[in-house]
Amino acid sequence: MKVAVAQVQGSADREANRRQVEALVQQAAQQGADLVVLPEMSVLEFFPRKPHVHSFYALAEPIPGPTSEWFSKLARSRAVHIVYNHYERSPENLFFDTSVVIDRTGTPRGRQRMMHLGEEPGYNEKFYYTPGWDTYRVFELEGWRFGVAICYDRQFPEVFRSFVAQGAQLVLIPTAVAGGGPFGEVYELEMRAAAITHGVYIAMANRAGLEEPLTFLGRSMMIDPLGKVMTALDARGGQVAVAEISQDRVFEARTLLPFLRDRRPETYGEVTRIPGQP
What we know:
CATH topology: Nitrilase/N-carbamoyl-D-aminoacid amidohydrolase
CATH superfamily: Carbon-nitrogen hydrolase
Radius of gyration: 18 Å
Oligomer: single chain
Strand content: 25-35%
């Protein structure tokens, strides 16, 4: 299977964002991609960079809704699977950072909500989002099992382990990482390490360009299960990178570095305990 990561430079103009995404999906399809991964808030500005703006709640949509229907038509017209990210409003009027998996026939296969919320300058997530409470889902397309770790979720090894315990061979990461600071400094390193320790491919799609006060890092990339960067983009928006993944490579990595074989889950009880609670 060929996987594409699409690097979007977003703005407050939703229609312009859609045109950019449509062009990137078309490019990926022309390069033979079977699956296209889009970054966080795929067709929206990255509004959490601005603190406490109540009008941004109006950007949220139900799923299914207008944006999911638009992506279903796009997937069907280009005959590619798409994983996009959007601002979801639930029937209970809760708001989530949510990724949706749509197959090449335009059929939604399910969604994953962001589970871990950060809070720091430029990332005012706890004001805008509710943390997901559903499980870490694993999806299947064309014989590949994969999970979706949204932005900050990628920092938690328990998320990767949850996916791998369910048979995942691939983890998709829609993100919005700005340059500078600790997250920018370890951006590539931590994902190469995660690929190695979990024996998975990683497809990370990042935003690019200036959305004040943030300048997004770009550098969307594909990493193989032995930590090799297969392809990586530079800092510019409006690009795609495509790489072919192989289940033989997953087998090779897990044989050479048999961390999953040698796990001792019966000894890890403390991992699920909350410090300070009985």
